[in-house]
Amino acid sequence: MATQAGKQPGTETSMADRAKWFAVIALVVGGIVGNWWFGEINVFYRALALVAMAVLAGFILFQTEKGRNLWVLMRDARSEVRRVIWPTRQETLQTTLIVIVLILVFALILWALDSLLTWIVQMLIG
User: Can you list the alpha helix ranges (DSSP code H) found in the chain?
Assistant: First the structure.
């Protein structure tokens, strides 16, 4: 099967996907404009409408090829997170303490360097 120059096979977007993306963009823009346009309506109802539009936009988004790929990526990431060996509470506290101490040490070094350079400049200027 011949492809256009410079395009990878399988990167073509179908017309149905383009229409779905247009619908998602229209829902997002419509939500933003509608929230501004109907600013005098109760915030609860506007938020409810925005959530409904976001859910609908997400549903349409996950019907596209890229949306399905995103869903697979999220599912795979979730399974990877389950396999991670998380540090214990003691390891977390020790690492945090080391970071805080190093931040303080470098802050003191920078303060001393700044004071020294300020003293040198004051001596040169007078």
Answer: 15-37, 43-61, 65-83, 89-125
